[in-house]
Amino acid sequence: MALNKETELVTADLDEVEHASGIVEKTLTPSDQASQGRDPNPHGLERYINLSSVVNFGVIILASWESFAVTFQFALANGGPSSMFYGSILASFGVCAVGFSLAELASIDPTVGAQYRWSANFAPAAPRFWGLLQGWITVSAWCFACGGPPSILSNMISSMAIFNYPTYTPQRWHTSLIMIATIFVPFVFNLWFRKLLDGIELTGGIIHIILFIVFIVVLIVFGQRNSSDFVFHTLIDDISGWNNSGVSWGLGLLTLTFSVTGFDSVLHMSDEVKKVRTRVPRSIILACTVNALMLFIFVIILLFYMGPLDNIPSDAPLPLIYVLYNATGSKAATNALVSLVAVVCFCALFNIFASVSRLVWCFARDKGLPFSEFFAYVHPTLQLPLNALLLVGFIVTILSLIYIASTTAFNALISLQAFALHVSYFLPILFILLRKLRGPPPPYGPFKLGALGIPVNILALCYLVYVVSWMPLPNFLPVTKDNMNYAGPIFGAVLIGALLDWFISGHKRFAIPITRYE
Questions:
Q1: Is there a contact between 145 and 31 (Cβ–Cβ < 8 Å)?
Q2: Arch. (CATH architecture) of 49-510
Q3: What is the pLDDT of residues 42-82, one digit of tens each?
Q4: Which of 85, 152, 377, 484 is found 20 to 30 A from 13 (Cα to Cα)?
Q5: Rounded to an integer, what distance in angstroms lies between the CA atom of residue 151 and that of residue 130?
Q6: What values do phi and psi take at 251, rounded to 5?
Q7: What distance in Å separates the CA atoms of residue 358 and residue 389, rounded to the nearest whole number?
Q8: Distance CA 482, CA 412 (A)
Q9: How far is the C-alpha of 503 from the C-alpha of 244, rounded, in Å?
Q10: Residue 517: beta bridge partners?
């Protein structure tokens, strides 16, 4: 029997695919075909992303040390220095275990659909059900995640305005307008100037590294040194209201895990990456290891040289500003350093728009979304999923406007990101682990974990379960409608919506990539 040159999307009943794992091993995805010199442009997307760009793509979209630098106020309220230091170690090892597991899967099948395609291909039963469920989880997580960086940038800009002009009082509509302004340029560049993204990746990567060195030098040279006891033994559990050291430590850990989440974004660009089966796994590995190492170093230096906590205003929305100002004594230097951090976060927005629009497009192409034909459209001239990109821009704009009406509603929606992304990592790793344990072994690509595969997969699953178990808890007590953690209920709503979609029409509509034999 000869294998067709192209993978055909078909809708198959469970009894037709109960041996799907054996079929999938021989499936050539569009990415595989391109890597072997076949069908280099299977869906109208041009492969233009080179090695340096794909590496920088994953590194910048995490920007872990920068992300933690502008959000560590949450860890200070829960757990404090102890949670920050030991949590950075746990998060670093955990994210590397998860990243290496996904890199192995990416080498097997470097597909834009990533998590939902892997769940469908490696699920021991009901592949279409798991694929559709996983697709809704991943797509929802990333669509709402698009609102995260604009809100962080808006907080940075507002905080700098307060720092320089103490009489300024930010209004919610100010925040919304800033968020919309920050998404305009990345959206336009993704629409008409995507070829310039290579240069943006390179610029962002250079700033990411150089700024890290500058921060380390500034803190060590000018910062006020704290004692080792402060760094290793100070556990704060009396600010958030929990009054329980274990719970406070676990909640403080989430700030670290948030900073290293999202490395799967490069997977969703797979159809535009040259030599995809080697470069995408390499990008994931470097994104996890480089960011984890830089985060760990930054946390140590920050804790040792941030000075006493009393020097940081308790109500400061961005403590980083006051850490730098206390160290340098210069508003100009503080403004410059914080602005450069904002530049790196801004570069990440270019990547997020590109990545999420491709994920939406791919899920629509596999008939996972309502109005799939509309969102699966690829503009013939621009060579990009135009309608999917417009949808992502629309979602971020709506999220920005929601902030005017209710900050609680806005925070509830974007809180889905970390929760759902961790769940989206869990299912494909679990399924590939079951495949390894039951046999036959999966069809490995150029990168494989070998004898370490099963232990690394188990470590990744344990890490994900531990982290997710803390995510539904509220950060502060007593719980009110304004500080309630809505991640759990929002995630539950996504699951209910996905299940309804499956029973109403998804079980007929959703297609799994299966190879036909002649």
A1: no
A2: Up-down Bundle (1.20)
A3: 555 666 566 666 666 767 778 889 999 998 888 888 888 99
A4: 377
A5: 32
A6: -70, -35
A7: 8
A8: 10
A9: 43
A10: 3
